[in-house]
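Section 3.1: Structural characterization of target chains.
Under the original work plan, the team committed to producing a structural model for every single-chain target entering the pipeline before any wet-lab resources were allocated. The record below documents one such target. The sequence was received from the expression subgroup and is listed exactly as submitted; it comprises 524 residues.
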Amino acid sequence: MNSKLLFYSAAAAALAAGAAAVSSCKKAAANAQKPLNIVYIMTDDHTAQMMSCYDTRFAHTPNLDRIAADGVRFTESYVANSLSGPSRACMLTGKHSHANGFTDNTTCVFDGDQPTFPKYLQKAGYQTAIFGKWHLESLPQGFDRWEIVPGQGDYYNPDFIVESGDTVQVHGYLTDLITNKSLNWLENERDKDKPFCLLIHHKAIHRNWLADTAHLRLFEDRTFELPDNFFDDYQGREAAAAQEMSIFKDMDLIYDLKMDRSDKDSPLKARYHSYIDRMDSEQRAKWDAFYEPIIKDFYAQNLSGKELAQWKYQRYMRDYLKVVKSLDDNVGRVLDYLEEKGLLDNTLVVYTSDQGFYMGEHGWFDKRFMYQESFHTPLIMRLPKGMDRRGDITEMVQNIDYAPTFLEIAGVEIPADIQGVSLLPLLKGDKPENWRDALYYHYHEYPAEHAVKRHYGVSDGHHKLIHFYNDIDQWELYDLDKDPSEMNNIYGQPGTESITADMRKKLKDLQEQYDDPIRFSYPL
C-alpha cells in the first residue's frame, strides 16, 4: 500500500476511534445521569431479632444479609406508630398518623386523594407498581400497575384485588406469588426505557405464621432460649399489665399454634379454619401429616402453667422462622433477577418491616407499644453506584423519612408539608451536623384487639418518656443505657427531675413541630 493510502487509512482509523470514544463518553454520561430505580421490599411484623444481619441468635437470613453486606444497616431505625396500616400510611406520605389521617386499623380509611411519594414519582416520569399487602381500606392510587390482597391476605391460595376491582384467587403460597407478580412486571410489563419504583409488600411474617408446606419440618430440632424477661410481672407499668398479647394467656392454641382437634375448641378456631380450608388436597395432606403427631403429643402431655407457656414459645419461634425462610428465599430471587439483568448498579434496594415485633420479650407477641422491640424496625439498603456509605448508619431515622428519601433520589423537590427528612445525605456518607436528636411516637388504637392503651412519647436514644392517656393517665421514663429491656420505670423517682424536664421539653417541641393536636388535650 502506498504512503497516501497508508496516511488516509490511518486518519480514517483515528477518526473512527475518536468517534467511538465520543460515543462511549456520551453513553457513559447518559448512564451516569440516568435516574435511579427503587425496589422497596416491606414485610409485616418482621423484627430485627429475627434477621441474622442484626442478631445471630435465632435466624439465618442469607439473602437479607446480602443487602446489608452490599450497602448499609440502620441501627437506630424506628416507626412513628407501631401498627400495620398506620405505618404504611406514614411511609407513603412522609407524615405522622395524625397528619395523614390514618391513625388506626379499626376506624380509618386511607384518603387516597392526598399526595404520596408514588404520585410524585409518576409526575417525574417514573413507572410505579405495588404487589402484595396494602391494608389501607381504600384502593391504591399513584401506581401504574397494582395487585393487592384484601385486608391481611391469605397465605394459601390467596385472593388478589386487581385493577379492574375484581377479586381473583391464585393458587400457591402468598410469598412466592407476590414475588412472581413483581418479577413478571419487571421482565414483561414495564417500559424498560423509563426508571421504575416497585413496591413488593409481603403479608409475611404476620400472624398466624402459616408456613409453606415445603418448610414445615424445618427448625423442629431447635430449642430456643427464653428471653430474660419472659415471665415479666409488669411491676410499676400499669399499661403493660393491662395488655392482651401474652404468649401464655392470649396466644390461641388452635389459631396461632395449630393444635386443632375435632373435640377441642377455642375463640379463634373458626378463623383458623377460614385460612387452612383454602388449601387444596395435596397441601392439606402435607399439613395434616406434619401436625397430627404434634397435636397428639401435645394433648397427651396435658401441660399447664410455666410448662405450657414455654411449650407455646417454642412452637411460636419455629413457626415464625419457617415463614421467615420463605421470605428470605424470595428476597434472594429478586436480588438474583436484578443482578442477572444488570440493574443492581442503578437500583436502590430497600428492605424493612412495617414495625418490629415481640418474640417473647415481656412474655409477648404482637407490637403496638413504644417499647424497643416494636418501636424499632429493621432497615437495610443495598446502594447503587455513587452512594459510598457502607456498614452501619447510627443516626436516628424513622419511617416518615422514606418518602422524602425516594423523592430526593429521583430528583423531585421535597414538598414542604412532608414531615420526614431525606436519608440521602447519610447514604452518600455525609454526617449532617443538625441531624435530629429525638423521635416522636403516637399510638392511637384503643379500645381494640390486644388492649394496648393509647400513648405518645419521645426517645433520644438514651432516655424514653411515654404518656399513656385516654382511660388512663400514666407516665413512664426509662434509662435505655442502663435498662435496655425497659423493666424499671423511673418516672417520679428522686434524682430523675432534670432528665424528666429535658425529655418533657423534647416531647413538647416535637408535638409542636409535627402539629399533633393531642398537645391541646394534654398540655406539657
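The radius of gyration is 25 Å.
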